[in-house]
Each structure stands twice: as C-alpha cells, then as structure tokens.
Amino acid sequence: MGGQSRGALFDSDDIVPVLIEGVLRLVWWVVRTVVALVVFAVRVPLLAVPAAVLVAVGVTYGRPVALWTTLALVVTLIAWRLLGPGTFGRWVRPQLSAAWKTVAYEVAWRRIAPRVGLVVHDHGPRRRRAGEVAGLAWVKVTPAGVERLGIGLPAGLTPDDVAAKTDAIAHAFRAREARIAPSGPGGVVIELHRKDVLATTIRPLPVQAADRVNLAGIPIGRHEDGSPWCFSLWQTHVLIAGATGAGKGSILWSLLNGLSPAINDGWVQVWAIDPKGGMELRPGARLFSRFEDGTPETMCDLLEDLVAVMDARAKRLATQGIRKHQPSPDSPHVLAVIDELATLTAFAERSVVRRIEQALGLLLTKGRAVGITVLAAVQDPGKDVVGWRDLFPTRVAMRLDNPIQVDMVLGEGARDVGATADHICETTPGVAFVRVEGTRAVRRVRASYLADDDIAALASRVTAWPALTAPRPAPVPAGPFDAPAPPRAEPPTAPETPAPARSEDQRPPASAAPQRKPRKPRKARTTSTPTAGVEKSATDRGVT
Ligand SMILES: Nc1ncnc2c1ncn2[C@@H]1O[C@H](COP(=O)(O)OP(=O)(O)OP(=O)(O)O)[C@@H](O)[C@H]1O
User: Fold this and answer.
1) Considering the domain boundaries, does residue 486 fall inside one?
2) Which of 239, 250, 252, 255 to mutate to test the pocket of ligand 1 (most atoms within 8 A of CB)?
3) 449: Cβ below 6 Å to ligand 1?
4) Residues marked as binding for ATP?
5) Does residue 9 contact residue 61 with C-beta atoms inside 8 Å?
6) Which residue positions form the known binding site?
7) How far apart are CA 308 and CA 41, in angstroms?
8) Same domain for 294 and 146?
9) Distance from residue 223's CA to the centre of ligand 1 (Å)
10) Same-domain pairing of 372 and 284
11) What total number of domains does the chain contain?
12) Based on the domain organization, do 147 and 72 belong to the same domain?
C-alpha cells in the first residue's frame, strides 16, 4: 500500500526511486544554497568579500592566521570609527548596517509581507495553492539612517497597494514612519524612518554676495536623508499651506536668503504683500522692490502694476520672437510674495476683491512664461484658496489639521504614500511635505530658520533695485452691485525722489542668461517701496 506522501516525487516504496528522489532533492538544495550565497555576496559585498577572504586565508595558512586577520580587521574598523567618525559614518556604517539588516529583513519580510496583505492569489482555472508574496529585492541604509527596502511586485500588486499598507508595515518593523519612494516599473521602495532626523532647528545656510543663484534650485533646508532641500522658483507658482505657527515664514525667509545675491545684483525682484499689517515681512522691506502692508486697495494696486509689467513683457517677448523669458537686470525675474492669501481679500470692498481676483488670476495663468512667480501662503487650503489651488504647480504642505487638507494641497493620494502633514508635531515648525518632481512620491523636509537677528543682517546687506514700471491697463468697470471704490489711499511715506522709470517696454532686450555682471555705476536712486520709507542710493548698498 504505497499512498503518495505530500510532496513525494515517486509513488513507490522501492528503494531505487526513493534513492533517486533523495539525490535529486540534495542536488536541488545545493543549487539553491549556492544561488542564495551568490545573491547574498552580490547584495552585501562588504560582508561577503571579507568572509570569503578569511575562509581562503584559513584554508591556505591555517586557522590561527585567519583569526589574527579577523582581529586586525576589527581593530582597523574601531580605529577608523574613533579617528574619522565623519568618513566612517558616510562610507562604512551604512554598508555595515545594510549588511546585517539585509539578513534580518530577509527573515522578517517573509513573515510580515503576507500578514499585511502584500500577496496575490491566482483566480484562474490553474490556481496555485499558495499566493505569491511581494519579494524583498534589496536593503540599503542611507548615511542619515533611513532604511530603504526595494520590493519586487508580483503581477497583480501595484505601488498603491503597498502605499495603502505603509502604516501596518511601519508598525510591524517598529519604525516611526514608513513612506513610499519612486522606483522603476514592477517595483516599489519602502522607506523606514526610525528617528526624526529633522527634529532640530536648521541654521540658515551661509550665503555670500558672490554666490551664483540658481532659480531652479535654491537651497533652503534639508531633506530627511540629510541632502539639501533645493527649491525651484523657475517657471512655477508656489502655494505654502500650514496651520498657524507651522513655520510658513521660515520657507519664505530661507528663500529670500538664498535669493539675496540675485536681488542685490538686480536680476531678481521681490514684490511683497503682507496683508497682516507687516507683522511678518516688514523687517525685510529693504529686500523688496515693492512692498505693501497697508489697505487692500494699495495691495490691489501692486498686483495690477505687476499685471501691467507682465503684459508689457509678454508683448516685448512676442515681438522679439522669444518664447521663454531669461532674467537679467534689465528684465528681472519677479517673485510676488503674498503672505496669507485669505486675508488679502477678507476685509476688502467687493469691487476691490474683484480687482484682486482678476489680477491674481492673470498673474497665475500668464506669469510663468514671462518670468513672474507668485508665492502665496495660506493657513486653510480648503476655504481660503479652493479656487486658486490648481494654478499653483508647486505646493508645500506644512503642519495641517486633517488628512483631507493634505490631499487638497499635495494632490489625491499624497496622504496614502506617506505625506502625514496632519501628524507633524507643533514642536517642529518648518517641517513640511513636498512632492518629488515628476512622481507621486513625497518627501519630508525642514526649512532653515532665520531668527530676527538673521533677518536684520540679511536686510542690512542687501538692497532691492527699483521696481519695474509699465502703463496700467484700464480698470475693470464696477458692476451694478459693487460698492463705490473708496479713493485710492496715498502711500503713508511716499519717497521724495521718484523712482527712475525702468519701464519694461523701453528697456533693451534681456541678456541670454542670468549672469553676474560687474556692477555698473548706478545713479542715486530711491526704491519704490513706499512703506520702506528709506531713500537708498547705490552707495547705501551694503554688499560688494
Ligand atoms: N524652520 C523653523 N525652525 C525652527 N523654528 C521655527 C521654524 N519656523 C518657524 N519657527 C518657529 O515657529 C514660530 C512660528 O513660525 P511662523 O510665524 O513662521 O509660522 P506661520 O506658519 O507663518 O504662522 P502664521 O500663519 O500664524 O503667521 C516662529 O516664531 C519660530 O519661533
């Protein structure tokens, strides 16, 4: 009676088939072990190569020599750790921890993946009994201690399926947070964060007057992996959303700090509106070519003046057959900063609200191509900016009140792939989530913090060039239900000497690229920054 045992190859009790089966199984086991060793050696060369060398030394020269060699290796590593902790932390520690964590994760992943549901089952007629589990392909550890798991996805699983399980994966591996990072087709990368490397305040990056500013990558803080957080103002508009005290100001000041050499050289201008009465931006008024913190009407005027500059520039570029604006001191890139978009229209007359909305709409739809970037901050991404949100290609989610707001700011699914902006702690202002360009993945970042002294030092070493001017378009006629607009408020401290008219359409064509030219002697001039209230001549300028 030879009933077939589970997994037996031959249905027989004869000795020969049993022997053949035994030999086949042994060969299969040897092949699998060799393949596993080769895979291990490829994945963890730092462990495999020394291990192979030590085995070779032991076989060739005997065990005592192998033991002494091992001891020498360990002493060398300890000495390196003590004498050069920087290079050890950069080159050796990530490799060593990846080596042993590869082994640990190999074991743990097989247990955890099916439990969190990362498994697919066949539904066709040729059903396999066991499901196919998402496989662990590799393990890496970054110098900042982030553990990255490369996962191969079997047919039927998508990165979104893994994203939906990030909370369960984080808990299973006892990590603080798990996030999905970009990867090629058929795979996904899970990042496990065990400690908060962004817990401490980041000092502002030192900026020299001679530094070359790259509008497509202004360093303003740090990523979680320790690399610099570089912010692009090139051909984009920026929306920063965060509850009160989230640290929106730190992103703004870090940007101004990074831009300061370009502001000083005149190929970047900042036009700023502070509807909260100048609380946030007034200390940096010298950096702004235009600054308004007074009435809604004056802020509206600033936006309409910028629309006029935009239209004049668009006309000039079209006449010259240029499709993309290149900033230069003759035709600078303009960054329009609005600190608290909702307050801008909250207390204005209806007719002024309409003018503001029209001007803002024009800047957001037509400004990018002609070198105008709008950067707006909001506390509530829902009610405050629901109509504008999609016109801001770059969005930053700082500490928010609920998960719905996270998706409102960063786009649908952002919360699922790990943008837990609603979990950002109140004790870490300046922390934010941003999208990784061109992907659905998100990254956690922190902006550097400029204290009042840093802002004062920044403002003392940089002076903005006079604001561009261009003829204003005719105002939109008031509707039948609009309240009559109040007379235009005069700036409280208008400069005595009018700013030199640097009309866009009168100036020579822009140079090809933003280059630091030797400073040309400039006539004594005043800024058109009425509320700055200081006349600034070229000799006043602190940066050389
Ligand atoms: N990047 C940062 N690092 C450390 N501390 C910060 C950072 N940013 C802000 N802070 C601290 O948090 C406080 C609030 O920051 P900030 O005023 O920029 O917040 P906010 O989002 O602009 O708030 P509100 O919308 O109410 O103006 C600051 O006074 C400062 O003490």
Assistant:
1) yes
2) 250
3) yes
4) 242-249
5) no
6) 242-249
7) 65
8) no
9) 18
10) yes
11) 3
12) no
242 lines ligand 1 (CB under 6 A): yes
**Contact 272/288 with Cβ under 8 angstroms?**
yes
Instruction: State the Cα angle at 452 between 377 and 286, rounded to 5°.
Output: 70
> Does ligand 1 come within 6 angstroms of the Cβ of 250?
yes
Which range, of 2-6, 143-147, 399-403, 475-479, averages the lowest pLDDT?
A: 2-6
- CB 97 near ligand 1, within 6 Å: no
Q: Which residues contact 145 (CB under 8 A, 6 or more apart)?
A: 194, 195, 197
Q: In whole angstroms, what is the distance from residue 117 CA to residue 273 CA?
A: 51
User: Looking at the predicted structure, is the pLDDT value of residue 442 above 80?
Assistant: yes
The pTM for the full model equals 0.73
Q: What is the arithmetic mean of pLDDT over 256-260? A: 95
**By the 8 A CB rule, do 429 and 246 touch?**
yes
The CB of 429 under 6 Å from ligand 1? The reply is yes
Query: How far apart are the C-alpha atoms of 503 and 348, rounded to whole Å?
Result: 29
C-beta 445 within 6 A of ligand 1: no
- 436 and 389, same structural domain? yes
Task: Give the amino acid at 318.
Answer: A
- Write the residue with the smallest CA distance to atom 8 of ligand 1: 247
Does 222 sit in the ligand 1 pocket, CB within 6 Å? no
Q: Is 9 inside a domain boundary?
A: no
Residue 205 Ramachandran class (φ > 0 left, ψ -120 to 50 alpha, else beta): beta
Asked whether residue 257 is assigned to any structural domain, the reply reads yes
Helices (H), ranges, 438-501:
452-461
Ligand 1 centre to CA of 232 (Å) is 21
Contacts of residue 129, Cβ cutoff 8 Å, sequence gap at least 6: none
ipTM surpassing 0.90, yes or no?
A: yes
- 254 CB less than 6 Å from ligand 1? no
Q: In angstroms, what is the span from residue 245 Cα to ligand 1's centroid?
A: 5
Which has the closest alpha carbon to 441: 409, 422, 413, 417?
417
pLDDT tens by residue, 471-492: 766 655 544 444 444 333 333 3
One domain for residues 457 and 494:
yes
Domain with 99, as residue range(s), is 94-119+131-195
| Of 530, 526, 534, nearest in space to 489 by CA | 530
Both 179 and 298 in one domain: the answer is no
Residue owning the nearest CA to atom 24 of ligand 1: 244
Give the residue, by CA position, lying nearest to ligand 1 atom 9: 247
Please indicate whether residue 399, judged by its CB atom, sits closer than 6 Å to ligand 1: no
**DSSP code at position 427:** T
Task: Write the CATH number for 174.
Answer: 3.30.980.40
212 belongs to a structural domain: no
Are residues 190 and 44 both part of a single domain? no
* Strand 333-339, strand 187-193: pairing: unpaired
User: Does one domain contain both 439 and 352?
Assistant: yes
| Distance between Cα 246 and ligand 1 center (Å) | 6
Q: What is the model's pLDDT at position 8?
A: 59
- Helix orientation angle between 452-461 and 248-265, rounded to the nearest 10 degrees: 20
- Axis crossing angle, helix 63-83 with helix 45-61, rounded to the nearest 10: 140
